[in-house]
Amino acid sequence: MTWSEMQPLLSQACTDTLTMVVWSTLIAVAVGLPLGVLLVLTDRGGLVQNVVVNKVIGQIVNVGRSMPFIILMVALMTFTRWVTGTTIGTTAAIVPLAIGGIPFFARLVETAVREVDNGLVEAVQSMGGSTWTIVRKVLVPEALPSLIASTTTTIIALIGYSAMAGTVGGGGLGDLAVRYGYQRFETQMMWITVAILAVAISLIQFAGDFAARSLHSRGARSGPAPRLRLLKAKESAAADVSKAA
Amino acid sequence: MPKPHAPVPGHTHARALDSDGNPVITTSGLTKVYRSRGREVTALDGVDLHVREGEVYGVIGQSGAGKSSLIRCVNLLERPTSGTVTVAGQDLTALAGRGPRAGRELRQARSRVGMVFQHFNLLSTRTVQDNVELPLEILGTSGKERSRRALELLDLVGLADKAKAFPAQLSGGQKQRVGIARALAGDPKVLLSDEATSALDPETTRSILQLLRDLNRQLGLTVLLITHEMDVVKSICDSAALMERGRIVEHGTVSELLATPGSELAAALFPVSGERTGDDRTVLDVTFHGEAATQPVISQLARTYNVDISILGAAIDTVGGLQIGRMRIELPGRYEDNVVPIGFLRERGLQIDVVGDEGRGPESVLVKEGAK
């Protein structure tokens, strides 16, 4: 297989993966964040303690988390058809991906929010803050570095899940690697997709770490890490230059 | 009655001693029982507390005595199992409702009570100024007014230059100053201090206590603090209470406590020690408190009766021109020989306790003789 033959396949696969991962991440974050916060709030001793709600959400999250993605995808077909009107293609794959990502992200959010010092919650309560104020001004902002790290982990997990989207004709890089690299013995194609995935995942991880760290550094005891300081120094130097000009 | 926000010049220990100001914090029959896995732990066992307007009130006790539960019950961060809490004439327990969530009324009442914490509890993702603005955001103050007020408060606590810093860039003492500025943002009448100096070194502790004292005087702020450090009570409190196993076992103004024979708090606040040097000697604990203790009585005693007085130990502070504290002195001769000098000291308005292995027996004899 020549490069000119592979190139359109690869670019289509990249677009498909990107579409699936971006949309499913957005949905997973939008639904998983409130769910994760709710898990903390409704827990025993939480701000809006409600054991029943907590147990129900917890159970749903556990089932969602432990279900192998490929089974989830098949099991959700009726639902997918109801939402998107079809059970095949990239759009159809977004539904199970998002639903698989929600409990995954919700658990990570729960852990991140639980880490927030209860003293801060108490402080805002003593100022007369409502539960909503506490969520908005304390829990989410203080957990933000962890939440960003959780989002990174979720994106990477969803990239992994998206490889299985080929089963329902969702396309994407994983599908390409399976169909060409495995089934047609096009080893070259497989290595290229592997390389693209490796680079993409590294970049996402790096960007996520960078974002989390630069947010966290304000709260950290020791201040920003040396390398970040170097970057900042360069930035400010550049700013000075542009000002001078 | 002092106006809540007018500066109160000359407000000292002495003024507070004979002040009969209105109680601004009152708890009655406050009980808190924690239940976990079928076991019950009584943290508060019928606590009656009366904190008067404009005073600094210290609650002292060992960890586990219930101090933390008490201060958290005052603004209902903890729901008392029974009993009532009244702050500035408002019954907070009545506002609480039955559920664990705080309704609007309780939240409004809380915003009028400031609180500072042992571990500062500043939001790490906000600047110092934004931390101070947080209570104002909750109150719905406009942005411009928030920032004006925050800078004013930071100036008041001496941190005007740190407005844009993040808490992580501050020292412990500076963080607590931010905590205090934040607690004052809602213009509270009452400040609750939960071990505010316990995480600080002695030097910083002094400066934070000084700040609290200044705020108490300048703003007429009533301060209720809990601590396990006797020094805190000694350096800023007008009144104090000792907690043990969920109960207040002693309470009163510093002067009243000193006047109470056998007061554990007084003994801890003004510890005196020293053994008698011989059998034919009399050891006395002289307690100085109130208006009476303005004269140099010890030297008067020595001159008038021509006795040699040894000072074995003393713990005395002079506050507002009055001496407060205790001194252990030794006079030559047995009790019988010293009836007259002891009578002299009692006439001067001092409280005299005779120390010795004879116990309280001889002393009560002396008291009777003195009464004659």
TrEMBL record, chain A:
Cell compartments where the protein resides: Cell membrane
Keyword annotations for this protein, in alphabetical order, are: Cell membrane, Membrane, Transmembrane, Transmembrane helix, Transport
Q: Which Pfam families match?
A: BPD_transp_1 (PF00528)
Gene Ontology terms: cellular component: plasma membrane
Q: Which SUPFAM superfamilies match?
A: MetI-like (SSF161098)
Membrane-protein topology: Multi-pass membrane protein
Protein's name in the database: ABC transporter permease
UniProt source species: Streptomyces monashensis
